[in-house]
Design goal:
With about 650 residues, this protein is α/β, with parallel strands linked by helices. About 50% of the residues lie in helices and about 10% in strands. The chain has helices at about 15-30, 45-55, 80-95, 120-135, 155-165, 190-200, 210-225, 230-240, 245-260, 275-280, 285-300, 315-325, 340-350, 365-370, 380-390, 395-410, 430-440, 445-450, 460-470, 475-490, 530-535, 540, 550-555, 570-575, 580-590, 595-605, 610-620, 630-640, and strands spanning about 35-40, 65-75, 135-140, 170-180, 200-205, 305, 330, 335, 410-415, 415-420. The strands form 3 sheets. The chain has a 5-stranded parallel β-sheet, sandwiched between helices. It has a 3-stranded antiparallel β-sheet with strand order 6-8-7.
């Protein structure tokens, strides 16, 4: 699933893809003078994958007779005639694949020089043919920032870009640019680069959103079957919107399943970036790791490892093995590391500042209580910790807390036994010292530190969490996660806690809910099943943030009692980890109500019936709401319980 994989693995990017091809259409229709475009985005945001997607899209029946695309990896540039070789390559392939026809009168391709590529008679003849047939050659240089690692190469590129801009031939030149690669203003290429950008149309590639991450997860499910919501959440949190990391996490999970790991144990696999890279190291032989680090170091320094050095510095069988394990790629005569972030890790021993990223779901005091149950050099089981716990918590709740402690790094697990790390003092101070140190590289903490305000309130924290975690929670869920994170920071030794404004607690005094048995005959949930599923985790985190509009549904489904406390049934639901299992239980529960049964009969008789049609079929008084639009909304929510 990395950048070099099949287009069938490409997901999302609908908007930017539409924009790029709209730009191509503007060129076709002579609505723009620009012939250059560049893809701008941070390292790891999927620029290379998108370049391959453009190339693949140009091969479909709609575009294949209009645009012919070749993508060139600029990292393979090793001489100043690289642009000429690339231009020659796209022309040669266009002839070979019959995009343009070669006749007996077609001149052999010649360039005036390696710098002057468009002025020869043979090139002019080619460009004239493209104009007559209204066809375009699209040449894209990927990893374009590598040009600046090679002395004076950029001047050759700039001359070519300028000639294309001036002549406006049927050529479109693109390049991808890593936005976190900076050229110093005193660099000889700086001003030329600024002028080149002015000639180009810019397209910015952003990080992945939740729907795009879901697309990658769906591919994983195609290989291993359904993935639980907990695992999906962990992938979304850990990936931070980085396409390469989303794919790597999914491959990591796939590998674990193939090795026989049970699905319920997947959450216990540490999915942080460093752990994944260490796992890559562990599956390498010592000679392979040594070779990988050499290739990484050479690439990091801008002196790429070449094919001619195979056998001299690294044996051919080692290169073959690394290619097979998808840890290196070959581009022309150059070998490089698959991901530049992995390259930097191999060279420096550190992960580039991406920041560890996960949502803290368990309360800090609950975690501290369980941590203090441990003893030095003594392992504990779920059973032993349950007996030790002074408040008598359930094993499911305890298990969730242990998963949180393990994710943070406070404890470890071998088989069914848990133990603390020797270097961590088992005390309140030891706990505080560890989490304070851990948070220094925690993505939300890094982001919050950058806020230039004297005080940080809950709303500021919510904004940061929404930016980092690509999930679509209800507002009250974000509210609960923000308050929980602030409680962790407040227990730490971090200076940021002095800036935090303590959130208001609770919703006033305890009140009771009215419950009339007669209402059972007319009850129909006003919440969707998705809304109730999102609310359940909040009972353990912070029940005070749950909106009162959900109380009636929670009460009638016997999830809470009249005093808004969880019932035994409600506790059972909150302890289940699999949303699909909870859905089945709730769907069976809702069928206890008369109106739900009536609704089910209507749906069974017409599977394709729409909410608006149901309102008319069942009568205006069947669903809540005064206006038809309101009734349709409530009908849609009620239907969700039966689908």
């Amino acid at each position: 699933m990395p950048a070099s994989s099949s287009r069938n693995h490409f997901v999302g990017r609908d908007e930017i893809r539409r924009d790029v091809f709209s730009f191509f259409k503007e060129i076709e229709d002579t609505k723009t003078d620009k012939r250059i475009f560049y893809l701008n985005g941070k390292s790891g945001w999927g620029k290379s994958s998108f370049v391959l997607e453009i190339k693949g899209r140009c091969q479909n029946k709609h575009y294949r007779n209009r645009f012919f695309t070749v993508a060139i990896d600029t990292r393979s540039a090793n001489s100043d005639n690289f642009v000429a070789l690339s231009f020659n390559k796209i022309i040669k392939e266009a002839y070979e694949q019959n995009f343009i026809e070669k006749s007996i009168f077609t001149k052999d391709l010649e360039f005036t020089s390696n710098i002057d590529l468009l002025s020869s008679e043979s090139v002019k003849e080619l460009l004239k043919l493209l104009e007559i047939e209204n066809k375009y050659l699209v040449l894209i240089f990927d990893q374009f920032e590598d040009v600046f690692r090679k002395k004076d190469f950029f001047k050759t590129f700039y001359k070519f870009l300028s000639d294309v801009t001036d002549l406006k031939p049927h050529l479109i030149i693109g390049f991808s640019w890593k936005s976190d690669f900076l050229i110093q203003s005193d660099d000889s290429s700086y001003h030329i680069w600024q002028q080149a950008k002015e000639q180009a149309k810019e397209f910015t590639i952003s990080e992945f959103g939740e729907k795009e991450i879901d697309g990658i997860i769906k591919q994983l499910e195609g290989s291993i079957g359904t993935v639980t919501k907990s695992i999906k959440d962990r992938i979304k949190e850990s990936s931070q919107g980085l396409p390469w990391l989303t794919k790597k996490l999914c491959i990591h999970i796939y590998d674990q399943i193939q090795l026989g790991l049970k699905r319920e144990e997947l959450l216990e696999s540490n999915l942080n970036i460093l752990d994944l890279f260490k796992k890559d190291d562990e599956r390498l032989l010592s000679d392979e790791l040594k070779a990988l680090k050499l290739i990484a170091k050479r690439a990091y320094e801008g002196n790429s490892f070449e094919e001619t050095e195979v056998g001299e510095l690294i044996p051919g069988n080692i290169i073959t093995s690394l290619l097979h394990k998808r840890l290196i790629i070959r581009s022309g005569a150059i070998y490089n590391i698959y991901w530049d972030i992995y390259r930097d890790y191999l060279t420096t021993g550190e992960i580039p500042i991406i920041g560890e990223s996960y949502l803290l779901r368990q309360g800090v005091n609950l975690c501290l209580e369980v941590f203090l149950l441990f003893e030095n050099e003594k392992s504990e089981s779920i059973d032993s910790l349950t007996k030790k716990h002074p408040k008598g918590i359930s094993q499911d709740t305890l298990n969730n807390i242990l998963i949180e402690l393990k994710n943070i790094g406070l404890i470890n697990k071998i088989n069914e036994n848990y133990y603390t790390e020797k270097y961590i003092e088992i005390s309140r101070d030891g706990f505080i010292e560890f989490i304070s140190s851990k948070f220094y590289n925690y993505t939300p903490y890094i982001a919050l530190k950058k806020i230039k305000k004297n005080k940080i309130d809950k709303e500021d924290v919510i904004v940061i969490l929404k930016q980092i975690f690509k999930q679509e929670f209800q507002d009250n869920t974000w509210d609960a996660y923000a308050k929980n994170l602030m409680s962790w920071f407040n227990l730490s030794n971090l200076a940021i806690k002095e800036k935090l404004i303590e959130p208001k607690k609770g919703r006033g005094g305890i009140s009771t809910l009215n419950f009339n048995e007669a209402e059972k005959d007319t009850f129909l949930p006003r919440s969707s099943i998705k809304e109730i599923l999102e609310i359940l985790p909040l009972f353990e985190l912070d029940a005070s943030v749950i909106n009162s509009k959900f109380n009636k549904d929670l009460l009638f489904f016997e999830i809470i009692d009249k005093r808004k406390n969880l019932t035994d049934f409600g506790k059972e639901l909150t302890e289940l980890k699999d949303n699909e299992e909870i859905k089945i239980i709730l769907k069976n529960k809702c069928l206890e109500y008369k109106k739900i049964k009536t609704l089910k009969e209507a749906l069974d008789s017409n599977k394709k019936i729409k909410a608006k049609e149901l309102v008319k079929l069942l009568g205006t008084n069947f669903f809540d709401g005064k206006e038809l639009s309101s009734k349709i909304i409530y009908a849609t929510k009620a239907i969700s319980w039966l689908k």
